[in-house]
Amino acid sequence: MIEFKAVTKKYPDGTVAVDSLDLAVDAGRITVFVGPSGCGKTTSLRMINRMIDPTGGSILLDGKDIRESDPPLLRRGIGYVIQQAGLFPHRTVIDNVATVPLLTGATRRAARARAQELLELVGLPAEMGKRYPVQLSGGQQQRVGVARALAADPPVLLMDEPFSAVDPVVRDDLQQQLLRLQSELDKTIVFVTHDIDEAIKLGDRVAVFRVGGRLAQYATPSELLAKPADDFVSSFVGRDRGYRALGFLDAAGVPVGPVATAKVGTGAAEAENTDGWVIVVDEENRPLGWLSSAALSTMDTIDKDSVVSGGSLYNTADGSLRSALDSALSSPAGLGIAVDADGRVAGGIKADTVLDALARARRTGEVPA
Ligand SMILES: Nc1ncnc2c1ncn2[C@@H]1O[C@H](COP(=O)(O)OP(=O)(O)OP(=O)(O)O)[C@@H](O)[C@H]1O
After folding, report:
1. Which InterPro entries match (predicted)?
2. Most informative mutation of 37, 42, 47 for ligand 1 (most atoms within 8 A of CB)
3. How far is the CA of 42 from the centre of ligand 1 (A)?
């Protein structure tokens, strides 16, 4: 556990970046610091590994004041990931990751083996180890940054806007990856972002800062959305608040209806008769995209290059009302695609059906009316 006790940071020019911060970061959880630019998120984060020292108050790591720890030693137990990954440009990817185990006394062979394992863990193919950072995409560099931060197996991981320099699709992928990793690793993660959506998605708890380095609210994502502490938090988390709150409601009770499917590579004439759209699936019944019946009527064999990419998918195994509704709204056919845990088409889902389920949840008091 990391505890901030009345922590203040006043820079020499008089700027108060953090003002009397009291906050306890739970062990083994993701805590997100979020807030507008200049509100003291980075300063708060960097005080944890003593890159910055507070001018008042104290920070305890597992009950011990971090001022009593030698900074280099302290940092061995605290991984650090930053926005531009911060990789060594003249070292290969594998050597970038192996640096830390080498520093802590591993043999070269053991360090490389560990690095290889970590690259796999963050979803990078082994052959990428030989490349130099410049030969990787931004998202891949971020993965290497995460692998490197994990190399010493630190119990604590600090992440400062790690995904903000990549495009939204890659960011979504990196966020999923982080959640998956965390479910295996149980690190104590402190994650800084200015993006409230990212905070809500990743955080077990979210600390909302306001300019002047003051904590406006510290709560779980659903509490933040349901009960913002004041007007500032309300306007900060406010955008699409009702819609985002759907992300916390299980869609298990939402009925999934039929959807016309057509297997790729089969004759178009064999496709189910429909006056609207069909979802094209692969051999395993996984969705590839949509074809309108008009397009279908012009082709002999269904090929996957002609499909219109669909919207988001709704996973019946663990989907929320938000993902169910989003799948319906983002589909060109107006019908969301529900898939099972293996990604196979389970049926279609309509926006109206989701809204009915929401109305039911309101009636039963599961969500406030
Ligand atoms: N070395 C410094 N000297 C003086 N003021 C500083 C210094 N570093 C940061 N600040 C100021 O402290 C305040 C908090 O900065 P900090 O970087 O912690 O904010 P932040 O919330 O992380 O912002 P951003 O989202 O823009 O990165 C800002 O007003 C900033 O200008």
Report:
1. AAA+_ATPase, ABC_transporter-like_ATP-bd, ABC_transporter-like_CS, P-loop_NTPase
2. 42
3. 7
pLDDT reading at 112 higher than 70? yes
CATH number, span 2-248 = 3.40.50.300
How is the chain split into domains, by residue range? 2-248, 261-362
Residue 172, pLDDT score: 81
Read off the pTM. 0.72
**In this predicted complex, what is the ipTM?**
0.95
- The alpha helices in 257-320, defined as continuous H runs, are 293-296
**Residue whose CA is closest, atom 29 of ligand 1?**
38
Pick the CATH number of 261-362 from 3.10.580.10, 3.40.50.1970, 1.10.1670.40, 1.20.120.330: 3.10.580.10
Pocket of ligand 1 (CB under 6 A): 11, 13, 15, 17, 35, 37-43, 194
**Rounded Cα distance, 212 and 37, in Å:** 11
Dihedral class, residue 50 (left if φ above 0, else alpha if ψ from -120 to 50, else beta): left
Structure tokens at 65: 């004041």
Average pLDDT over the chain, rounded to whole? Answer: 87
Q: Which residue CA neighbors atom 16 of ligand 1 most closely?
A: 40
How much distance in Å is there from the Cα of 35 to the middle of ligand 1? 12
Query: In angstroms, what CA-CA distances link 247 with 64, 89, 93, 177?
Result: 38, 40, 37, 18
